[in-house]
Amino acid sequence: xxxxxxxxxxxxxxxxxxxxxxxxxxxxxxxxxxxxxxxxxxxxxxxxxxxxxxxxxxxxxxxxxxxxxxxxxxxxxxxxxxxxxxxxxxxxxxxxxxxxxxxxxxxxxxxxxxxxxxxxxxxxxxxxxxxxxxxxxxxxxxxxxxxxxxxxxxxxxxxxxxxxxxxxxxxxxxxxxxxxxxxxxxxxxxxxxxxxxxxxxxxxxxxxxxxxxxxxxxxxxxxxxxxxxxxxxxxxxxxxxxxxxxxxxxxxxxxxxxxxxxxxxxxxxxxxxxxxxxxxxxxxxxxxxxxxxxxxxxxxxxxxxxxxxxxxxxxxxxxxxxxxxxxxxxxxxxxxxxxxxxxxxxxxxxxxxxxxxxxxxxxxxxxxxxxxxxxxxxxxxxxxxxxxxxxxxxxxxxxxxxxxxxxxxxxxxxxxxxxxxxxxxxxxxxxxxxxxxxxxxxxxxxxxxxxxxxxxxxxxxxxxxxxxxxxxxxxxxxxxxxxxxxxxxxxxxxxxxxxxxxxxxxxxxxxxxxxxxxxxxxxxxxxxxxxxxxxxxxxxxxxxxxxxxxxxxxxxxxxxxxxxxxxxxxxxxxxxxxxxxxxxxxxxxxxxxxxxxxxxxxxxxxxx
Length: 608
Description:
Elements: H1 15-31, E1 36-40, H2 56-61, E2 69-73, E3 77-81, H3 86-92, E4 99-102, H4 108-115, E5 121-124, H5 131-143, E6 147-150, H6 155-159, E7 172-173, H7 176-179, H8 183-196, E8 201-204, H9 207-213, E9 216-217, E10 230-234, E11 240-242, H10 250-257, E12 261-263, H11 268-275, E13 281-285, H12 291-299, E14 303-307, H13 310-316, H14 320-347, H15 355-367, E15 372-375, E16 380-383, E17 407-412, E18 414-416, E19 419-420, E20 423-428, H16 434-451, E21 454-456, H17 461-464, H18 470-473, E22 484-486, E23 495-500, E24 513-516, E25 519-522, E26 526-529, E27 532-538, E28 549-554, H19 572-589, H20 595-604
Parallel strand pairs: 1-5, 3-4, 5-6, 8-13, 11-12, 13-14
Antiparallel strand pairs: 1-2, 2-3, 7-9, 8-10, 10-11, 15-18, 16-17, 17-20, 18-19, 21-28, 22-23, 24-27, 25-26, 27-28
Helix pairs in contact: 4-5, 14-15, 14-20
């Protein structure tokens, strides 16, 4: 009945293949006179999702996680991963070839400094390493008495014989009614920021920023509608868009050519030379720009200004059309979620469900809206103890049945042309225990605290983050991830620069969309996470207020599970919020569903 078209459950890991590839890379390093090399899981844009041709870490090692780095020396090799992937890396890597190094214990640069022989020549690809990344490598290599070498071409690519070609998915122009702002108006705002900051130009290395600036979308990577591309925007004069011409139809090329010079990415060096003359100051995004660009700017006589891209904040604050699109997408997604939740409630105790069948069902309900373009990330569907693995991703090998007496955590999202969604619900299978209800309610209290927050302009995510944790802290509990991340408008489900976390230093601003997702995880037992997306809006100012206030308007429309709520732990204000939220879900979604699903919704959204 159900199937998944946008995500796979296959585990492509092959430790034996990784070992053979390691030998080939070492032979190439020896031929080039290098004693070591670093292989990050990255492309030239530092994208979260990369095309198959840039999955170098997976090809070399067999490790298929979305973050990590391999350090290859002549006689040893390590793969450094964060806490999400220590178990996966141990399963996928050949222990005779690689040691798994937890990032929390030993950062990659520290492992390199401890293990690099004195006098060694250690290589890196400047297209895959940021400016800050090079400085960290330099300190580690010189600290070990070695020499850091920027390679002209990646030695791994030289031995990857069946490397996939670069993607050439068609580029589409974003309709004006969805974009809400013309390219020329966006360029004018970017130029204004450049002049304010006394910059001569900016190199847009993040394809998300390029897509936003030129009102384009594509399909070069999974889960995010990106056309891989670069752009150079000068403070004065015509911008340059560097994109593979095979992606452009005549109509699209004509439209883009009215705003910028269109050239092939191979001419990036020449395009930089044209703007980076003596005395010029060029902004590079420190988070995404490869060090290779900085070297080229300096070689042309320019000065690199390292900082945030001026596009990032402009892009983060959605305009009226983008907000309307996000609301429409969430209503559509809410109807699919209600149909899914009703289905799960009907089937969970029958004993036939697994993590994979649940993911397939939810994706199918979203596809049946007729508007789904993709999922916004691979669904996190954890039954029982798997729900306690924060970024668990089910595979055929790990697929667990849905069992009575357990909890089921489902974190998923969709890409619709008018908006991006991301939502998490935690569902009981049968009767939950008192402990489950207590933990769920404490997480819900944190979620409500964020949703009800009112804060002065200039408040950062770090200042709000404790609101989500207070009820857990009072019981000696906590969660180890951030409370929320930014979300794009039919772009990345993980968008900067704002976030709600201990490290969130960017002030929240009108029009930003952020997730609200506190959680609790009992290792070996269960996981709980409750996530809605929130829009930053103006909040009413009380009489005598001295500062303008902001707050949140919830975009996500899906019931919380009332069976999991310990009513006595909630304050009257929290109960009122929950009842009002459920009334809104019922009002907006009930006209979009029928029959048993509608009856289920009406029951699920009754006042607490």
